[in-house]
Amino acid sequence: MDTTTNSKAGIASPIQDVDKSWDDEVRQLVQTLPKEESWIGGGGGSLYLYQGFWYIARYLKSMISFQTHFQAFDSDVLVASCPKCGTTWLKALTFSILYRDRFARDENPLLTSTPHQLVRFLEHDVYADNPCPDLENICVYKPRLFGTHLPYASLPTSIKDSRCKIVYICRNPMDMFISLWNFTGKRRDQNQEPPLSLDEAFDKFCRGVYLSGPFPEHVLGYWKASQEKPNKILFLKYEDLKEDISCRVKHLAMFLGVPFTEDEERQGVVEEIAKVCSFENLKQLEVNQKGLSRAGFPRKDYFRKGEVGDWSNYLTPAMVERLEKLIHNNFDDSGLVFKLSSKTSMA
Ligand code: A3P
User: Fold this and answer.
1) E-assigned strands of the chain?
2) Which of 184, 193, 209, 233 is deepest in the core (most CB within 10 A)?
């Protein structure tokens, strides 16, 4: 990727100047923000509270570029989520559904590229090295498809004002917390940092201090927006996908404006997509086993257990009680219900 020049702007030096001035601006901004230690410790940088959510400084810079410069097209599709809620899965599904007529059925690009390479994060990746990236060349297929962990309120206005579509995935907060703790724990280990105890991590989680946290505000932002604009925002739950993937794949295709034809259904295309994107398939692919993600995490760590209810193997009764209270206090009036295991739900 070209990180210093921009073919649309045509000239290199202004971008370098913008970059320099952004650095100063971000440095000054960061000094004014509330700060906490990140989950991955030392090398991961601190977390800063900006526009009501927590980010590492490096992402703040690219996030501000994204907020300032991104111009949405009505045809764009955005995969949005809080980290560890099923982003990788939803990226794989959305890519496979949206572009299914662009490649042969046994040549899905997911077999050789990771979901995060095919559907790139705008604020963490696309805008990471360049405040004005050439978006046309970044997306191989059209319509353009991107990912984001930004909360709804922080999305660029052109996304909110245009007719572009957003698919959001959330997950019950107990499983999300355990997934996050395991994921960041491996990175600490890799960096030879002492582990963050479950108690310490739990306290941070309940205070909302983690990348793109707090969870309730993130989820409720998209939940409310999806209720106001159901044709623009599709709100999905990890647990529902686990329960009936074929039904969700068809729903997602319908929402994206590319419903499966009767012929496709007869030929088993829905089941084929569900299978290519399944945890079992993606996890074993060489491309997802080796190497590091753009954010520096081992690719294999994006695929851990892929289950609903794994929290019960970790959380103490006192932790469960505190999280149940957090769910009640934040979600009771919203109409949003979380499935905590393959059987139980919580309003
Ligand atoms: P666990 O840690 O509970 O296993 P994200 O993609 O947002 O980072 O979320 C990661 C979580 O989704 C991890 O959960 C991971 O195992 C799970 N996951 C990744 N790919 C999946 C897939 N294809 N199907 C179901 N779960 C998947």
Assistant:
1) 35-37, 46-50, 53-56, 77-81, 145-148, 165-170, 233-237, 338-339, 345-346
2) 184
Residues 320-339 as b or e (16 or more Cβ within 10 Å = b): eebbeebbeebbeeeebebb
pTM over 0.85: yes
If one counts every other C-beta atom within 10 angstroms of the C-beta of residue 268, the result is 13
Catalytic (active site) residue 149: yes
Distance (angstroms) between ligand 1 centre and the Cα of 279 equals 7
Instruction: Determine contact, residues 146/66, Cβ cutoff 8 Å.
Output: no
The CATH superfamily label for domain 34-346 reads P-loop containing nucleotide triphosphate hydrolases (3.40.50.300)
**Contacts within 8 Å (CB) and 24+ apart, 292-300:** 293/114, 293/116, 294/116, 294/120, 294/121, 294/124, 294/125, 294/128, 295/124, 295/125, 296/187, 297/183, 297/186, 297/187, 298/186, 298/190, 299/114
Query: What is the per-residue DSSP string for 121-144?
Result: BIIIIITTS-SS--HHHH-SSSS-
pLDDT, residue 190, reads: 81
C-alpha 109/C-alpha 30 separation (Å) is 39
- pLDDT score of 141: 94
Residue 8 is predicted with a pLDDT of: 33
* Helix, strand counts (H, E) of the chain: 16, 9
Please report, for the chain, the start and end positions of each structural domain, with discontinuous segments joined by +.
Answer: 34-346
> Is residue 94 within 8 Å of residue 252, measured between CB atoms?
yes
**For ligand 1, is residue 306 a contact (CB within 6 Å)?**
yes
